Amino acid sequence: MPERILVIDDVAEIRRVLRLALSAEGYQVKTAGRGNEAREEIERAGEEHPYHLALVDIMLPDTSGIDLAEHIRQRSPQSEVIFMTGHASVKTAAEAVRLGAFAYLSKPVRMDELFQVVRQALEKQKLTAENRRLLAELRESNRRLEELNRTLEEKVRERTAELLNSRSEIQRRAQELEIINEITNAVASSLRLEEILDLVARETRKLVDFDRASVSLAWGSEEINEVYFLEPGNDRGAEIGHTYPIKGTGIEWVINTRKALIRDDLDRRDEFLEDDFIHQTGAKSGIVVPLIRRGEAIGTLNLGSRKPGVYNRSHEKILRRIAGQIAVAIDNANLYRKLEAYSQGLEAEVARRTASLEQ
Fold first, then answer.
1. Are 281 and 266 in contact (CB under 8 A)?
2. Phi first, then psi: what are they for 326, rounded to 5°?
3. pLDDT tens for residues 28-40?
4. What angle do the packed helices 65-75 and 35-45 form, to 10 degrees?
5. In DSSP terms, which residues pair with 245 in a beta bridge?
């Protein structure tokens, strides 16, 4: 598309000559004889089709060419301005420089000089436009780069957090596995239930916080007939001989449903019969997990804390595995007691028969 040039001069013959000469060079030329006419033409062109170059006569009938040039630069900052005058002076030349005019030509204008100055002005205009385009691209590239950097930094932070969380999770699971293995080994190597429960209380505390802990056994009956208090106190012996009805208790609900009962605020409501006793102990939150052996819920593992909201589903998963080992240990100890009682009974029967035979 040819460059657009606006010629502004009050002498019609000069306008005609310049228009013909510049058109012959391949430029798209329009002319104006007065300042107001030039302003209207510039407004019509607007920002979408601005003039690349304006040849402005300094002396116009209705305005100063210098004022008009200032208006042109305000409306179209990318346009270049060349002044023409038949009354050259140092003052006007200095003013032209101040306004950023590309050149200052004296009338009568020599065509070869005009063509050269016009080419240079348009070349400058092209370079300026190209520089603006490149600067805009550079700013956009910098903006995208900054945005990319922010995105990468955010992703790095997220990934780092994920790795740290993953590492913590792996360490936590490794600790859980180590403790479960410790309990499993104790169950497999000992029939002394008190000794096993002592280890269970000690190892469980490494994973789950509690202030009170106990094991309640019902063995399929309607009442608790064995209780092992793991905490407080160091005596892991069983409380046998005292029975506690379980109807209407949380223990009954856990045994019947085989689900864990998590209570995050024991002060907030009374749901079960044992809540009055729990309030007296100072417990604020608790969790009860079923002890399941050979497909039967034989009792529960009970933990309580003086702080509210301590327990959640992650604790349930851990305690279910521990409860499974406790159930095995209790079942083994029960079988051992039965075997021991049978052995003692057999010995007594042998002794009785031996005495009878001797008689």
1. no
2. -65, -40
3. 999 999 999 999 9
4. 10
5. 223
